[in-house]
Specification:
4-stranded antiparallel sheet; alpha/beta; binds S-adenosylmethionine
């Protein structure tokens, strides 16, 4: 395809495949819009950071979200007397050096793609409102946003019901409309229709994409996801655990859990008879990378296959932080592996479609720690991928064709993140 064709494909799909490079640029708003027929994702609500005027808002602290409050002092100290790296830091440094050229090359490719680079600046404009208006109304609505984690804990939680309005664009009309109310916690809530529907919970509205299902509960209830029949297990399992780290604590966006809690996730029981591709988001902490490789994957029975990288850029195409900043790398990793039920040959599974190692995804990040929607890009590597059953664990949003579990999978489904088509 010509550059022009690549670009017009990007405008439709939100995915730009560079020439002579395996790197991919993603516009999450366009990718997510493919899940919806009646609504679309609000670009202003999605891209709340990393656009030019953030800098004029005194949000420059975003540049170093992972740095502890006293880091400046420490940095200054370090500059005076550089101490040698300890063993763990040396390993982390080696890992970084290995992937560095790859990331630099992907970034150079982006910077060399003029048409795309020019489009980046406009990703946040939705044509209807000024940024100021959007921010104002978002802030007003923020106050009444539901806190699902708290709601799920109170004694009344089994009583809370969500109402799905299926009547909204159907050809048939019924007295009272076609509305279904079901418990919102510890329950499978399903939209099997071909359109997204609006749902109501405690006077807030949520958009539920077509062919999606969610189960909102605490980790204690995760065993309820294990299918009764093994054929109804999952072929693609995407996981973004609430890893402990200083920045999540600091910003209090969600609760984190110690690593040992993740060892008992029932990955093998959730796996389809024809196997599953497991994709796990990990941070750059060396101890965490080692925990995943040496303890977590083995305890889940997952065989390592490849590592992908998410490179984060600002709207001007520059990296969100210097590539070599030790404590705040402008990239995160997605570690991939295969899971199989007992007595199934994993090697045979992985022979299916080989996963290229070191694939790089580039995007402008959304709200704090929201990951780009790369789930469906993994479909081609999924074993037995016809009619692939997809599961996201610790999800904060829903997707067409996906089953989503977490203690707040409706978080980004609030109507404040959407516009009417
Ligand atoms: N992938 C998500 C995204 O892109 O927006 C981010 C997921 S975030 C890293 C981890 C999620 O796990 C948060 O929504 C958090 O509330 C949830 N979580 C934390 N503790 C949990 C628990 N005990 N049970 C279920 N979910 C939990």
């Amino acid at each position: 395809p010509t550059t022009h064709e690549r670009f017009s494909r990007f405008l439709k799909s939100g995915i730009y495949r560079f020439e002579n490079s395996t790197a991919i640029f993603i516009d999450p708003v366009r990718v997510l819009n493919r899940f919806y027929t009646r609504f679309r994702v609000s670009p202003t609500a999605y891209y709340s950071r990393f656009f030019d005027d953030d800098d004029h808002n005194g949000n420059s602290k975003e540049e170093t979200p992972e740095a502890p409050p006293d880091s400046r002092k420490r940095k200054r100290k370090k500059e005076k007397k550089p101490r040698p790296l300890n063993e763990t830091e040396l390993i982390a440094q080696r890992r970084h050096q290995e992937v560095r050229p790859l990331l630099l090359k992907a970034h150079e490719t982006l910077l060399g793609t003029t048409e795309l680079l020019a489009a980046l600046k406009g990703l946040r404009s939705d044509g209807h409102f000024t940024d100021e208006e959007c921010r104002g109304s978002a802030l007003k609505r923020e106050a009444s946003e539901l806190n699902f984690v708290e709601l799920g804990r109170v004694w009344q939680s089994p009583l809370y019901e969500i109402s799905l309005n299926f009547d909204q664009d159907q050809n048939f009309t019924q007295d009272g409309g076609d509305q279904i109310s079901v418990p919102v916690f510890n329950n499978f809530v399903v939209n099997n229709g071909d359109n997204d529907v609006e749902a109501e919970l405690l006077n807030r509205n949520y958009i539920i994409p077509r062919k999606s299902c969610f189960y909102m509960s605490d980790l204690k209830e995760i065993h309820n996801l294990v299918p009764v029949e093994c054929e109804s297990g999952f072929n693609l399992i995407l996981i973004d655990p609430p890893w402990e780290n200083s920045s999540a604590h600091q910003k209090l966006k969600y609760h984190t859990l110690p690593n040992r809690y993740f060892l008992s996730l029932p990955i093998e029981q959730l796996t389809h008879t024809s196997g599953a591709l497991v994709a796990l988001w990990v941070t750059n902490r060396e101890k965490l990378r080692r925990f995943v490789e040496n303890e977590l994957f083995p305890s889940w029975g997952v065989t390592y296959a490849a590592t992908f990288y998410w490179l984060k850029v600002k709207a001007d195409g520059q990296l969100i932080s210097q590539l070599d900043l030790f404590h705040h790398r402008p990239y995160e990793c997605l570690v991939l592996g295969y899971s199989s039920q007992k007595d199934v040959d994993v090697v045979e599974l992985s022979g299916h479609v080989p996963i290229p190692d070191n694939q790089v995804f580039i995007s402008v990040p959304g709200d704090y720690s929201r990951k780009p929607p790369i789930g469906d890009l993994l479909l081609e590597y999924v074993p037995g991928s016809k009619d692939c059953r997809r599961l996201e664990l610790f999800a904060r949003e829903l997707g067409a064709g996906w089953n989503c579990w977490g203690n707040e999978p409706l978080h980004f489904q609030d109507t404040k993140y959407f516009l009417k088509r």
